[in-house]
Protein 1
Amino acid sequence: MNAYLRFKRALTEEEPLASSYREDLWAELPDYRKLPPEHSLLLLEILHARFATLLADLEPAAFRRKLRTQVLGSVTLDVALQRFVWHNRNHRAQIEVYLNGRD
């Protein structure tokens, strides 16, 4: 969700600073702990549909727009998108391993 919002900010602002957050602490909050993992997968499915719709109509120049992060510095949306895809696949695999282990 954060990557999606960062991407949209970079499309509408000049090189915005992408805020960081503590993923480990977010995972301790009730919406992570109390809801089943299937809810996270559904949220990802809906989010990806929105992201895909956004990406489908972008001109190539849009991917050269930039955002800044505390860790990576200035990166193009092309690089940010590649990192998002990798990050998402990693988290999705973690969820699927957990779900398969529950059976």
Note: The first helix runs from residue 2 to 12.
Protein 2
Amino acid sequence: MSRRKAPAAQAAPRCTVTVCRGCCCGTAKVPGVDHAAQLASFKAELGAVAQVRAVNCLDTCEQANVIVVQPSSTGRAAGGRPVWLGLVNDPDATADIATWVRNGGPGLAEPPDTLDLYEFSPSRRVRRAVED
């Protein structure tokens, strides 16, 4: 008798939303932001359509709070690439990111115009550590 498990049903491709919560992001070093509420909002609003994960530090402290939206496999096949968003310190920006991800995220949906104000490019070293 085999002990192998039957293969699980293939889950739908999902974006990954990485929320920095390290030495600067998610701490009192960025005052006036309810960091716990921001993360809880992402998990509540996106848990069914995206993987939301908090990480210790993305090494882009000058941009705190940092959010990285990585495309689903379908979005990547359509040309989507990870989008780095910095200074995400207000509920409107959090809501815009959530709406974009619900609509498909990178490669599948155009981001709201306001997110252009938050987008930045980290160094190749930092980018490689998160995107690979």
Note: The first strand starts at residue 15 and ends at 20.
Protein 3
Amino acid sequence: MTAVDNLAAQRLFLASGSTRDGKVRELYFREGRWWDCYMFTILEHEWRARAHLTLREALALLRRQEQEPRAFRPAVA
């Protein structure tokens, strides 16, 4: 988990192959206010597929993925 405003940590989670699976609202109280967090997960086979990458290679892969156009996926009701 990481705070929603911690973009550096989020990029590291995504570069590792993790996916953002949810948001926990008002998880902890600090500096006079409640903070939300994002939860990231990775399955073992996903981790093993990227375990050989250095951090630099993983971040470069993430940058390429961010630049690819995303297909629209309608929400399932």
Note: The first strand starts at residue 2 and ends at 3.
